[in-house]
Amino acid sequence: MSLPLKSWTADNVSDFLSFLGYEVYIDRFLEHEIDGRALSLIKDHHLIMTLKLRLGPALKICHQINAIKAIDEVSDTE
């Protein structure tokens, strides 16, 4: 996705989850109004405790979020 994470809409977040193979969690993210700004702040415990994700998917999603944030940081410095 070419947009910076913090600019993502809830639909972009849904696309991201679909890309990762986690379509089953899309409704939970939409219910909690998770857009890119919220996604950039989310931690694994939010996913586990609030969204009720299992540990494995929560860690994998957080890993991908952190990778995107790192790419965004590099892009900001260029």
- Structural class of the helix and strand makeup? mainly alpha
Biggest β-sheet description: none
Radius of gyration: 12 Å
What fraction of residues sit in β-strands?
under 5%
CATH superfamily: Transcription Factor, Ets-1
CATH class: Mainly Alpha
Mean pLDDT: 95
CATH architecture: Orthogonal Bundle
Spatial shape = globular
The number of E-state strands comes to 0
Secondary-structure element pattern, one letter each: HHHHH
Count the domains: 1
CATH topology: DNA polymerase, domain 1
Q: Number of helical runs?
A: 5
User: Oligomerization state of this entry?
Assistant: single chain
The low-pLDDT segments are: none
Helix content: 55-70%
First-last Cα distance: 18 Å
Task: Tell me what you see in this structure.
The protein is mainly α and 78 residues long. It has a single domain, classed as Transcription Factor, Ets-1 (DNA polymerase, domain 1), CATH 1.10.150. The chain is 68% helix and 0% strand. The protein has five helices and no strands. The protein is globular. The model has no long low-confidence stretch (mean pLDDT 95).
